[in-house]
Amino acid sequence: MIELGGKRLRPSLTLMSCDMFGGRIENALAPAMGLELFHNFTLLHDDIMDQAPIRRGKETVFKKWNTNSAILSGDTLFVMAYELVTKTTPALLPQVLELFNDTARKVCEGQQYDMDYEFRGDVSIDDYLLMIRLKTAVLISCSLKLGAIIAMAPAEEAGLIYDFGENLGLAFQLQDDYLDVFGEVDKFGKEIGNDIVTNKKTYLYLKAFELAGGEKLELLTRHYRDRSLPAPEKVATITGIYRELGIDVLTRSLIDEYFARALDIMGRINIPEERKQLLLELAAQMVNRES
Amino acid sequence: MIELGGKRLRPSLTLMSCDMFGGRIENALAPAMGLELFHNFTLLHDDIMDQAPIRRGKETVFKKWNTNSAILSGDTLFVMAYELVTKTTPALLPQVLELFNDTARKVCEGQQYDMDYEFRGDVSIDDYLLMIRLKTAVLISCSLKLGAIIAMAPAEEAGLIYDFGENLGLAFQLQDDYLDVFGEVDKFGKEIGNDIVTNKKTYLYLKAFELAGGEKLELLTRHYRDRSLPAPEKVATITGIYRELGIDVLTRSLIDEYFARALDIMGRINIPEERKQLLLELAAQMVNRES
After folding, report:
1. Pair B204, B162: CB distance under 8 Å
2. Domain residue limits, chain A
């Protein structure tokens, strides 16, 4: 699982946040690794639940070995995540545990919502935003706040970096959804339109159904219901309707809105701007990425 | 999962150990509950891995709902276990975490061995004892040591109660294996001979193959290999061979041996005998139980 690679975004955020708050990044190394293991644990179990055969161009764990090994090595990875996350000064343990326990629980809740939504016909945009907040954004927040705690930042500033992370995380996930439809296949590195093929109720899907009327609504409904439709045709038609409805522009503007909120919160953290630069550059990459 | 009931053995051990070492059992309540949740988390995931339809006379979680809900509610239960186990004085957190992380990892390892053994032809009695030590005994040890830590017992005595628990845990699991073959159905509360039907490589199975020769070995091998054999016939024949080989007596004597070791270790804990009474009574029940 670990050898599949990945951007190592979450540990990077922890180290950068620790550094920004004037902490020693050496002290954040083990906890940062713990968050990466936790993230991989969730992917490992998610792949079983989604029956996903491929991740990062390679076979998923349950496919390569079997479901039982995937469940159990996920559980073990979770233990190892706790071992590493709690490798910190004893005085910081209560804060670290409160943050990590809360995050872990929310990520599980988010995954449950994600699965539930597949079978629910009444998912609203607010429901969707709640789900990605829990499933994705809180771990971004947690990564940043963990760095702040290890740097012994004041509680108020640790709270601000958490809120920064939550807005950044929402923008990050929306960017993922955007790229899945409007990305360029050469840059994205995976197939375009997978969310459309699987009828995933993303912000784009929900907004399109909210805005579409008449013929467009009828076209959307028909294309999402028809299971015999070849995937390329379904993707092309629905992407076309999305463009006509302005879903691309609306999604980008929602991403910009969350990112602006994040920047606003960052502005309230009382640290010289130049110390924030590295983290802000990474954050900008997260919401402007093409892959 | 929690409403299925159970003996609540592990939290009882934590509370009794805390009390024995002169601690306030109120301080041990949350961590003790955490261990019970952890135990239930492992059962929940084990039931998926074993495809077990029934536990304690009721449908298992994955059967009643589905595998995905069972994986995810197991993960969440694991988070809740950490939340409760770490509800203790900050000064004790490093010790508590070291103990619990180590235990959780070993229990996962034990489960992996248990699954591996099913497909291995070269499992030895030592392999089996290692597996039940990891899968079952260390959680008994952990329960007892957690009580000792919360009672702020000296490190040496906390180590002794851990070792007491490990021997007790081995005796406890061997008693389980014994009852599965030689128990009385009315008292045992579940079907007799399940380990035989499923070809489980318990101490009884491994010892029988070690001791059997000639006709008995041939009979054993044939009955274990023949998948078309009706379960009652298989159980009756193999139980008969076990008795002829003295497996019942040998198993009881191994249980007695581990229990005697446990008692010997308890004797080295410098606490008045009357304070040990309650815990010793429970321990005796664990290895002499009929259900």
Report:
1. no
2. 2-288
